[in-house]
Amino acid sequence: MNGPLSSAAMLGAPSRGFGVRVMRYRTSLVPVAVFAFFFILQLVISPTKYSYFDFNYMSTGGAALALAAMGETIIVLSGGFDLSAGAVISLVNVVMASTMHDTLVSQIGIGFAGLAVGGVVGAFNGFFVAVLRLQSIVVTLSAMFIVDGCTLLIMDKPGGQLPAGFSRFFTGDAIPGILPGPVAVLVAAVVIWSLLKNTRLGTAIYAVGSDESAAGHAGIGVRWTKFITFVIGGCFYGAAGAFVSAQTGSADPLVGDTLLLPIFAAVVVGGTTLGGGRGGCFGSIIAAYILMIVINMLLVLNVPSYYSSLAEGVILVIAALAQSVGAKSRIGLSLAWLTARWNAWRIGALPRNLPPPCPPASAEADRRSGSAAARAFAPWLVRNEDTLRFAVPSYIAFGLVVVITALVLGVGTLNAHYFNSLIVLCGFLAILALGQGAVIITGGLDLSVPWTIALCAIVLTTLAPGSNAAALWAVPVALAVGLLIGLCNGIGVIFFGLPSIVCTLASNAILEGIALVYCNGTPSGFAPPAVHWFMTKTLLGVTPVVWFLGLFVVAATVLLERTVLGRRFYAVGNSNQAAYLSGVNVPVTTTLAYMVSGFCSALVGILLSGFDGQATLGMGDEYLLPSIAVVVVGGTLITGGRGHYLGMVGGVLLLVALQTLLAGTTLPIAGRNIIFGLVILGAVISLRERST
């Protein structure tokens, strides 16, 4: 028993135990190693010696992002997404700055109230996601709009002031000269997470994120777990808002808008798997400081600040790709698929090279054939019953909004000028609806729309500054840029296996950096006169773009409903596997959907530059949520596989008419945002109820 063999076994046992421990904590060890690398690199390039002041400064700078990333991580672990994190931080910031007084009771009470505000928003999201079983993406997008409106109602511009004592408590020293306050806050947050992780709720969060169905069969309350997860995540956002308030000492209703991308980047870089079930908050904290160090290094190297969004987007993509490395990863499977495709092409065994299958001869096939023939001769309303059921409500609601507009603003407002202007304003969303709709029908989402619009507009006005002759080649170049962006998004989603929300969110940040670098931070030039005439002048009594939009609607309807490509979009959205087994080239089809979206965004950028006369930074920001909203309100299923372009056009008419009505009233923009978000959420709920 004490011979060489047993000795080797005894020596090997600790080694195997160590390896098991390393594999168990690898999602945290990798961010720590990356942090150590960048930290040492920062020390090397820094012109001054690292001191306690630098330690305090660094811990303060990344604490808010770390707390927000912890909240997002918990929600992602359960299989969800939360796009309202930045909006919640802004809301907590203005609430605290406008209500806190310079007394200990007020500071403690309002501090906990900030956590409660985040928890209430989380409960709002959790109710619709867990109880009504709506998609977390569309719910939190709507919540973001509603929360932004509430924030602007409280404070529509920067202002307010927090007591100096509150700021010192969070950003000062917990132990003078030894332990900064932010580090103590994060230690407390990690302790809370560790305690939560080792409870039954923590186990349930991981189980639901890994396999919701299996968790339900194991007796775990899936709905309750999801609901409480959103509440906990909201409380962490509240803590982040409180820390931002202490850090700045004042309020800014837009302070959280720039945090959404870094939050998701920290989650992914920290090793948490998007889709749920693996990861943890400790890695997200380390990743938040990795992002901060990278940005600080750019500043030390005198790199312009607009490279920061480019760096954050690239880091997010690299981290997401690192999670999928392996032979059985999407990248490995994509390479295997391309190899098989190449070999099949060489021997002529692609589906298009094979003879068509024999027609079915069974009784079941005869029954289906007979039913298909019966449908062919059925009345038009019967054949299109499903489409009408989801598309018509948006047109009915549009009619009601027009009637209300006449009652509120007067019948005289409903003249030819009103409808001409309405159609022109609808044009931007109608074009975006085709691209976003194609992506949503295939089961994805395109969040790169804002800066695709801005970049393509900047490209046009730079290449053809006020020149019609140059516009002849500048317009095709801008459209080609949009197609290239869509191609890159499609490759990222399909061949590299990135979730569409992560890929396109990172793409949007990268495009922002590219646009800022390209124009050196300031767009120059004006739109070509022909494009400006097309968007603002008159042809046969209406704006020229109105005639174009009529043709576009017809072409878009034919594309989605009457072409092979359109039918393949629907097939992929219903089931990737079934579409593949039916001979559909799923990767190419999905990539083409993103290319359609990129093309449509580029076209909107060109038209917007003509409408405004020039390109501006952020000109596409206000079109992200509406581009998704009109598709959903028009009856398209957010998870893909169902929808009709004419229904999307109805959604466009409804939302633009509603915006026009609200703009004509004395209701502040904050109230309009709230109403707009509630309308979207209500439409999603009503469509969900009819689809079950």
Average per-residue pLDDT, rounded, comes to: 82
Overall shape: globular
What portion of the residues fall into strands of 2 or more residues?
under 5%
Radius of gyration: 27 Å
Number of strands: 2
**Poorly predicted ranges:** 1-15, 354-371
Order of strands across the main sheet: 1-2
Residue share in helix: over 70%
Q: How many distinct helices?
A: 30
Q: How is the main sheet built? A: 2 strands, antiparallel
Span from first to last CA? 66 Å
Structural class label? mainly alpha
Task: Name the features.
75% helix, disordered N terminus, two-stranded antiparallel ribbon, mainly alpha, 692 residues, single chain
Summary, kept brief:
It is built from 30 helices and two strands. The chain has helices at residues 4-24, 26-45, 52-77, 85-99, 104-131, 136-154, 164-171, 181-197, 200-210, 212-217, 222-248, 260-269, 281-300, 307-323, 330-347, 363-377, 380-383, 385-409, 416-441, 449-463, 468-494, 500-518, 529-536, 544-562, 564-574, 576-581, 586-612, 624-633, 645-663, 669-691, and strands at 173-175, 179-180.
Describe the protein in words:
By secondary structure, this protein is mainly alpha-helical. Helix content is 75%, strand content 1%. The protein has 30 helices and 2 strands. It has helices spanning 4-24, 26-45, 52-77, 85-99, 104-131, 136-154, 164-171, 181-197, 200-210, 212-217, 222-248, 260-269, 281-300, 307-323, 330-347, 363-377, 380-383, 385-409, 416-441, 449-463, 468-494, 500-518, 529-536, 544-562, 564-574, 576-581, 586-612, 624-633, 645-663, 669-691, and strands at 173-175, 179-180. The chain has a two-stranded antiparallel sheet with strand order 1-2. A hairpin with a 3-residue loop joins strand 1 and strand 2. The longest helix is centred in the first third of the chain and has 28 residues, at 104-131. The protein is globular, with a radius of gyration of 27 Å.
